[in-house]
Amino acid sequence: MLHAQVVGNAVASAKHPSLESFKMLLCQQLGPEGEAAGSPFVAIDLFGAGMHQKVFVSTDGIGARDIVHDEHSPVRMFIQGIID
User: What's the pLDDT at 38?
Assistant: First the structure.
């Protein structure tokens, strides 16, 4: 699980059919002091996270594919919760 911040929306004109009904967000992993760590990544959003909100992101690809009901989906990460 990663501590991250939403930094943008991910929009695709063509995407895997399993992702059609999911909102995709660009997230930036945060380090221990809240600083940016690593490169931004895309995660599907299950909670309606907004821009600049801090979130928990699961890196469980099997769990993500379970959520989209497609074992061949390319999805790897999903927002598991919003940090209040």
Answer: 94
Backbone angles phi, psi at 67, to 5 degrees: -60, -40
Query: Would residue 26 be called left, alpha or beta, if left means φ above 0 and alpha means ψ between -120 and 50 degrees?
Result: beta
Domain housing 69: 2-82
Place of tokens 């059919």: 17
pLDDT at 84: 85
- Residue by residue, DSSP assigns 14-70 as S--GGGTT-EEEEEEEB-TTS-B-S--EEEEESS---TT-EEEEE--HHHHHHHTT-
pTM, entire model: 0.91
DSSP state of 6: E
Q: How many structural domains comprise the chain?
A: 1
CATH number, residue 75: 2.40.50.220
